Amino acid sequence: MSKTVNISSPSQFSDVLKASKLVVADFAPLFEQLSQTLSRPNLVTFVKVNTDQQKDVAQAYRVTSLPTFIIFRNGKVADRVQGADPLKLQSIVKKLSQEVESIGNGGGGEASGSGSNGGSWRGAELPRGYTDITSEIELQRCELLNVDPDAGSVRVLFDTAKPSALSGAKSASKDWVESDTDEQLLLFVPFQSMLKLHTLQITSIPPKEDDDDDEDVPMRPRTIKLFTNKPHNLGFDEAEDLSATQEIQLSEKDWSAEGTANIPLRFVKFQNITSLVLFVVDGDGDGEKTRLDRLRLIGESGEKREMGKLEKIGDEPGE
């Protein structure tokens, strides 16, 4: 028998958020199997929210399309899956199972970054008032140019797991990306909805020279150019010549002890964007390669768009 709680009022939903440490909210008729497997009284609670009957709750948590799944930790939004995304749902299930196991053993689950309350790993805390919107990326259309084929694919950049370089785990394949013929990388990231991007969190954990048998030890990025609302990836020459929406210069002091740079963006320039191009211009050192382990997007998600379609919104500075 399902242990799912059917929400009948905003006050009931508020009470559940207060009573249960972890809440998985389903705003569509799915997730029954997870509910039966993982529900635990006052620890993990699955709830159903009928968006037609509970419009106030749906509006409060910006549920604009179905299906939408939201995970709350200690009453605050920790993660969400919006739209039919089996890969993301699979990742959430795996992460949730780990959470339940940790809670059942008396732990509180691994914190994201330094005390942040997100469910997935994150190298830095969330800015107040904003959420991790990395799940809004249209992963199948992402493109990474000049990537070393012996390293990981573009998908590892958005993996919700802690980087193996920090966890000490040995994986069958590399869970990071490196540039190939030189230090430059070009990453095209389309979104499932209009986003307001507030912060970029980049994790780069190159090995120490004495820990790597390869003489060409990769570097962390130093100069990064960001372009918004491009319908496809740029070429390297084009990216060199175009005026960026924002250009970023990173130095050693910008990286945390665990290798994450928390980069605030010029928020007014990153409103209503449908795609992001990240151009790593050069690395911080004398090597020939740069390395990226994880990338997180922090901000607000907006109106859902039709999958596969990108529209340029307005004109960018300098174009």
Automatic annotation (TrEMBL):
A GO-annotated cellular component: cytoplasm
Q: Where is the composition biased (Gly residues)?
A: 104-121
The PITH domain, residue ranges: 122-317
Give UniProt keywords alphabetically.
Disulfide bond
Chain spans, region Disordered: 103-125
- Superkingdom is Eukaryota
Checking PROSITE patterns in the record gives: PITH (PS51532)
Family indicated by similarity = Belongs to the thioredoxin family.
Q: Known InterPro entries for this protein? A: Galactose-bd-like_sf, PITH_dom, PITH_dom_sf, Thioredoxin-like_sf, Thioredoxin_domain
**PANTHER family this protein is in?**
THIOREDOXIN-LIKE PROTEIN 1
Name of the molecule in the record? PITH domain-containing protein
